[in-house]
Amino acid sequence: MADPRILIVTPEISYLPGELGNLASRMHAKAGGLADVTSSLVKSLHEAGADVHVALPNYRRLFHIEPCQLEGQESRHYHSKLPSDRIHLAEDRVFYYRDHVYSTHSDDNVRCSLVFQREVINNIIPHVRPDIVHCNDWMTALIPAMARRIGIPSLFTLHNIHSVKILLEQIEETGIDTSEFWQHLYYESPPSSYEQSRSSNPIDMLTSGIFASHWVNTVSPSFLDEITQSQHNWIPGQVCNELHNKKAAGFASGITNAPDPSYNPSTDEALAHPFSAQTSAEGKLINKRLFQKKMGLRPNDEAPLLFWPSRLDPVQKGPEILTDILAELISKYSKHGMQIAFVADGSHGHYIKDIISMANLEGLVSIHSFDENLSRLGYAASDFMLMPSKFEPCGLTQMIALKYGSLPIVHRTGGLKDTIEHLNTVNSQGNGFVFEDYDCQALNWAIQCAMDFYQLPPELKQREIERVMHEAHSRFTHQKTASQYINLYEEMLGKPLHSIESPSI
Predict the structure, then answer these.
(1) Is the pLDDT reported for residue 252 higher than 80?
(2) Radius of gyration of the chain from Cα atoms?
(3) DSSP 8-state code for residue 216
(4) Arithmetic mean of pLDDT over the chain
(5) Which long-range contacts (CB under 8 A, 24 or more apart) does 494-501 make?
(6) What are the pLDDT digits (tens) for 114-150?
(7) Are 245 and 503 in contact (CB under 8 A)?
(8) Closest Cα partner for 123 from 9, 33, 247, 259?
(9) According to the model, what pLDDT value does residue 25 have?
(10) DSSP character for 318?
(11) What percent of the chain has pLDDT over 70?
């Protein structure tokens, strides 16, 4: 099919290309990586000439949009066009006055997701008439079922493994007629009829999106393999089973994300001194001095600096296996003056502060609440980036670190496995330090490998850092990610929907 029309449905967005209308620059409603990934995909698809459309809630307060700016249309009704007809805002007052994309109350998030999907199903899809609908995470998981009912191929992307369960009657209370597509949803127990299921048999939102969609993708190939092989016992069995069925049928894949192009040390305005791969030795030293000052670390040009930019979440990101050896590391490498800096928020932060205080690590270990500019400076200043995640659907920070010449220290899982290879200076291969077992001893080993590298002759280190930076800027781009999605869309359109067998419940 020539120039297929793609409708991307997302509850989050970081930005939209200015060519999509004079309000596009205001479209900023971000809670996590989904917003960045969706924005980059829309931008790259648009630049590639694709007929791409976007559906998202009208977060008026977040977008700083007044009703009178909506081209004179009644704000209480769905409007099909902004100055360009590529942005389609779901209209309901439940979105208008929100200060954040998601609430701390799960019931509120469920209601917002249902209202958003109501507008997409009842108004936006009939108006856009897309050739493919691309949905993202559980908040859009009813749409693939409706798309299958009316014969539109759908792609369902899993950025995270989180779901909710809800009854059909609760969905219908928001104005979605589930009787049209109830048989394409995934239930807690096998459904015998619509009437039997409506008020007593909850559906699983995330699994329904997987079950009903034409194609499913995760945001890295290895994470797909890990789920389908049931390597993570915290992932519900029905998710593993349905993804396994999709993959076995040839309708599942993994596409690795890429960081935003603004992460470029040669143009990053947050840096004290921009630099390229060739000038990284001088540039990183200048940025290290400023970062040490801002973080309250001791001025020391020779100190190996380790940087933690991810949220301090012990469920996923692994800060607990670092804090188990934090004081030991500083003592072990005291003659080198090792420093560790955290620019991150999260529940584990208070443990780090306690360790700093109790072990008298001030000036050697420092923690600061997340700040975008400070984090960018940290990438540029650091020698190594710490990311010992227990699991990682994709990860972007490891790719950003490489572009800034900060070598990642990572656990071999998910997207980290797909993007980081253990460094071998003899063969001039690899780009970081990778450990297999998820424990503090394995992390300690990887840090030792990093320190061995740090003590190599400067000319050898510089050769490897230049190579790593060049490879990262070439390998991790939105253009490459978008081209994989375009190829996937084309493959989907080449497979008739009637030939796709839905796995049995």
Answers:
(1) yes
(2) 24
(3) E
(4) 90
(5) 495/153, 495/214, 495/251, 497/148, 497/151, 497/153, 497/214, 500/214, 500/249, 500/251, 501/249
(6) 999 999 999 999 999 999 999 999 999 999 999 999 9
(7) yes
(8) 9
(9) 61
(10) -
(11) 89
